[in-house]
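Q: I'm writing up a methods section and want to include an example of the input and output format. Could you take the sequence below and give the corresponding predicted structure tokens, formatted cleanly so I can copy it straight into the document?
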Amino acid sequence: MIAIGLTGVIGSGKSTVAKMLVARGAAYIDADLVGHRSYEEGTFLHQRLIDEFGRGILAENGEIDRRRLGERVFGDPQALERLNAIVWPAMAETIEEDLRGFRLAKVEMAVLEAAVLFEAGWQRLVDEVWAVVASPEVARQRLAAKGVAAEQAEARIRSQINNEARVQNVHVVIENNGNLAELEARVQSLWEALHRRIRV
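A: Here is the clean output for your methods example:
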């Protein structure tokens, strides 16, 4: 099995690329959903986050409210660092379990979509890394089209590793400043190349 780590800044189109790969048969891991699973009520991580950040991060049903948790660490670099130090290793364990399951099921290709792939050190979990890149101007336009306020979009873009730093340690760079048809063609070419490598 070839496991691909798919990353890119917000607005780059990495989720679109992930959907294209899944449509072609790749197994899929969404790091955001892994995060949800990792601190569901009853898990060790659920209690660990309450101990660290207080019961104010809980929703009425006892589950961790991501919005409240985000507000708790937003603007506080030390709190965010503590959060990541708790959550990212636990998520890595879940991702590894999922990848092992795919291998046991004889899956040929799997994709892990993660904006924070490098920040979390998860590149060690995959065979190669693909980065989807778009210019900041294009990313802003896409976020605006989704209704994200300009100030919020700018803050999100600036909070992530920029394109130049992101592509230094990747195997494949997918430029996505054009239209959907151009992106589809690029993904198809990469998919066919993967199949040729698997069957060698």
